[in-house]
């Protein structure tokens, strides 16, 4: 679906999308079950799929052979071959071109991807982060990561009148929100800089291209979230190529809101009798008071081009076709949902001994985090215009 000239990077989302974002951002986690009929949750879709009027369909699969080859190469020869079930690709009538691949990445791949991103790529000085905007970042020595830096490490502010020095604990625990790989996207100008992009990490390129051969990964944003963090509704419109945008998530669950831009709404694409965008609504439970908290008001209605998906660790979302330019955001990250197998990460770090008493024990950092890798192709194969 070619990019429309009306797709401006600085335009704000429509009111309806902002209202939904605000509602789910404010919704206390304990009330999520009460609004479940509005949320597409792939752990509860079996009855939906059996329904002939369902808006959700399996439209494709990735074969076990492809998965085994791609993951085998990514994990290296030392890994035992992994036996894998084919992965279903789901599409939803309300958002043509959106593909959802629940549990695409096995835990071993998720763990290895985390380590490559956060222990290796974060230490590469070519990969900028939001922390670089305001601080002079102190780097670990070669082959070490930020998780190895001594507890006394601080980053000095670029403008001491505006920011205080930032400790490495504050930086990794809370402040770090994104890192850019490949083409270094500038969040202020919302542009990719001119000139040759930074080389995209080869093993990550092969993983992504192996699973999604139509896309040549040239740039990625690695987002890190803690519960309470959000990503406001936006469209990713800075790329010249209209290739699919691929998003992979690891760690805590999140609610992901996606709504087709009005320019791309073709009402013939949705059966005219359909008014519900998500799984069939079930009888709404009476909102009981929980732990003294006031029950929330009912959620704003979803129009026929908007869905909210509960994204879990290992899931991938691919925005292609008309959905490539859809409004999307993350109103909520749900704490205490990180898979047990990842919750100790980065347990690889050396443990405290009398010789490294200044070292921080980061075991369990991941338990409190969601990491999202958002991959883009910037240019058509002919290169930049
Ligand atoms: O975290 C997510 O699921 C979405 C991230 C995103 O939309 C972006 O980086 O542009
Ligand atoms: Fe995005």
Automatic annotation (TrEMBL):
It holds the Pfam family 2OG-FeII_Oxy_2. PROSITE patterns: FE2OG_OXY. One of its GO terms (molecular function) is dioxygenase activity. One of its GO terms (cellular component) is cytoplasm. Residues 268-305 are annotated as: Disordered. Binds 1 Fe(2+) ion per subunit. This is Fe2OG dioxygenase domain-containing protein. The lineage of its organism: Eukaryota, Fungi, Dikarya, Ascomycota, Pezizomycotina. Its cofactor is Fe(2+). Gene3D superfamilies: Alpha-ketoglutarate-dependent dioxygenase AlkB-like (2.60.120.590). Keywords: Dioxygenase, Iron, Metal-binding, Oxidoreductase. Fe cation binds at residues 234, 236, 328. Residues 216-379 form the Fe2OG dioxygenase domain.
């Amino acid at each position: 679906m070619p990019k429309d000239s009306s797709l401006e990077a600085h335009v704000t989302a429509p009111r309806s999308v902002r209202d939904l974002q605000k509602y789910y951002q404010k919704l206390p986690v304990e009330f999520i079950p009460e609004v479940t009929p509005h949320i597409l949750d792939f752990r509860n879709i079996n009855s939906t799929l059996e329904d002939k009027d369902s808006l959700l369909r399996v439209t494709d699969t990735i074969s076990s052979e492809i998965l085994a080859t791609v993951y085998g190469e990514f994990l290296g020869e030392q890994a035992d071959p992994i036996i894998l079930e084919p992965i279903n690709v789901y599409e939803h009538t309300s958002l043509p071109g959106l593909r959802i691949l629940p549990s695409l990445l096995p835990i071993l791949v998720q763990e290895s991807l985390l380590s490559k991103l956060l222990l290796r790529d974060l230490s590469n000085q070519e990969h900028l982060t939001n922390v670089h905007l305001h601080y002079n970042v102190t780097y670990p020595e070669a082959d070490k990561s930020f998780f190895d830096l001594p507890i006394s490490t601080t980053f000095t502010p670029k403008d001491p009148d505006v920011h205080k020095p930032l400790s490495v604990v504050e930086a990794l625990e809370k402040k770090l929100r994104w890192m850019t790989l490949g083409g270094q996207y500038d969040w202020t100008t919302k542009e990719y800089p001119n000139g040759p992009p930074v080389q995209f990490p080869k093993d990550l390129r092969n993983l992504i291209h192996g699973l999604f051969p139509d896309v040549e990964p040239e740039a990625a944003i690695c987002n890190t979230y803690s519960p309470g963090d959000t990503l406001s509704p936006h469209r990713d419109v800075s790329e010249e190529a209209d290739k699919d945008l691929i998003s992979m998530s690891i760690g805590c669950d999140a609610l992901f809101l996606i709504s087709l831009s009005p320019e791309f709404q073709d009402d013939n694409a949705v059966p005219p009798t359909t008014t519900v965008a998500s799984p069939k609504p079930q009888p709404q439970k009476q909102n009981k008071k929980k732990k003294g908290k006031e029950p929330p008001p009912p959620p704003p209605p979803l129009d026929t081009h908007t869905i909210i998906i509960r994204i879990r660790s290992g899931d991938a979302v691919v925005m292609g076709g008309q959905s490539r330019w859809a409004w999307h955001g993350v109103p909520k990250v749900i704490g205490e949902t990180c898979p047990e197998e990842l919750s100790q990460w980065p347990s690889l770090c050396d443990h405290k001994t009398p010789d490294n008493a200044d070292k921080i024990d980061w075991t369990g950092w991941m338990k409190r985090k969601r990491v999202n890798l958002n991959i883009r192709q910037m240019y058509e194969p002919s290169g930049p215009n």
